[in-house]
């Protein structure tokens, strides 16, 4: 059966990731695989951790340091299981089937290996080491979006069921792919979707918007359009703040300023400042 991959790390965003994973799974009628990935270290193998020590007691110190390293690996393993158990409880409470996976190794290697049978990936905007004051994005987020061939749903800090969708549209291939995805999948079925172009109002963009609306109609979805002058990140953030959108859908690349996304300035700025989840299409 089709499934999505949700990544949790024990940060404040992990709870939101689990709630959004359950929401998506319910609407799309798919299962969830919940992953917590430990780093490459923590396997308990002996390492020379003594630095430049050259005097007596070196062997004893090495042994103690190695034991501490092994203990740390065990603690991380137990903590990882606890994180997964908490996530399972949230997802199962929504009536969604979920499997948990504790993996050791590189996060990106895990995603590349396991995403083949996944519909999409759900990840938090920031991780445990996030600098909330500076609004830094999670250190792995850009790596995930670049490495994955699947759509990536980036959860914000607080979960809220989606009732209104903004689709950032520049007329490029990736924004049309985002339109096709929404038209062909049940994720946003029945929800109002607005196709928003940030930039000049031209006959070409009007034609592209009309074509996109027609694509949505083929999927039995009704979409409205809006053209607003200004920088994309400013326009979209303002609309989210003032007009009550609960989800922003964007293509990862395009032929306008949105091209430099996450990738580049527009998308990273949107994700950094937006208070709702952002769904990235490749």
Topology as H/E string? EHEHEHEHEEHEHEHEHE
- Sheet-strand content, in percent, reads 15-25%
What is the percent of helical residues? 40-55%
What profile does the largest beta sheet have? 10 strands, mixed
Instruction: Compute the number of strand runs.
Output: 10
Give start-end ranges of low-pLDDT stretches: 42-50, 131-136, 253-263
Report the C-alpha radius of gyration, rounded.
Answer: 22 Å
Side-by-side strand order of the widest sheet: 3-2-1-4-5-10-9-6-7-8
Q: What is the tally of helical segments?
A: 8
Helical/strand content category: alpha/beta
Overall 3D geometry?
elongated
Mean pLDDT: 84
Question: Overview of this structure, please?
Answer:
The structure is a single chain. The radius of gyration is 22 Å and the shape is elongated. It has helices at 13-28, 58-93, 107-114, 141-147, 173-184, 203-218, 232-243, 265-273; strands at 3-7, 31-38, 98-104, 118-124, 152-155, 165-168, 193-198, 223-228, 247-251, 278-281. The relative contact order is 0.14. It has eight helices and ten strands. Helix 1 packs across helix 2 and helix 7 packs parallel to helix 8. The chain has a ten-stranded mixed sheet with strand order 3-2-1-4-5-10-9-6-7-8, sandwiched between helices. Helix content is 41%, strand content 20%. The chain is of the alpha/beta class and 282 residues long.
């Amino acid at each position: 059966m089709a499934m999505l991959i949700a990544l949790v790390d024990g940060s404040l965003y992990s709870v939101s990731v689990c709630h959004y994973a359950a929401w998506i799974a319910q609407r799309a009628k798919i299962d969830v695989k919940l992953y917590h990935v430990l780093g490459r270290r923590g396997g308990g193998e002996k390492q020379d951790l003594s630095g430049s020590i050259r005097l007596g007691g070196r062997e004893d110190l090495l042994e103690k340091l190695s034991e501490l390293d092994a203990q740390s690996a065990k603690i991380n393993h137990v903590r990882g299981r606890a994180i997964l158990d908490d996530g399972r409880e949230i997802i199962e409470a929504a009536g969604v089937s979920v499997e948990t996976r504790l993996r050791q190794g590189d996060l990106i290697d895990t995603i590349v290996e396991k995403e083949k049978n996944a519909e999409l990936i759900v990840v938090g905007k920031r991780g445990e080491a996030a600098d909330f004051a500076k609004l830094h994005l999670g250190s792995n987020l850009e790596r995930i979006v670049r490495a994955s061939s699947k759509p990536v749903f980036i959860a914000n800090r607080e979960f809220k069921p989606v009732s209104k969708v903004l689709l950032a549209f520049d007329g490029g291939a990736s924004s049309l792919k985002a339109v096709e995805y929404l038209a062909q999948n049940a994720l946003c079925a029945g929800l109002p979707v607005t196709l928003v172009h940030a930039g000049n109002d031209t006959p070409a963009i009007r034609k592209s918007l009309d074509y996109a609306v027609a694509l949505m109609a083929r999927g039995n979805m009704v979409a409205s359009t809006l053209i607003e002058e200004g920088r994309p990140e400013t326009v979209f953030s303002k609309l989210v703040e003032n007009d009550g959108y609960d989800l922003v859908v964007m293509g990862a690349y395009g032929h306008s300023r949105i091209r430099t996304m996450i990738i580049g300035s527009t998308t990273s700025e949107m994700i950094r400042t937006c208070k709702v989840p952002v769904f990235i299409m490749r």
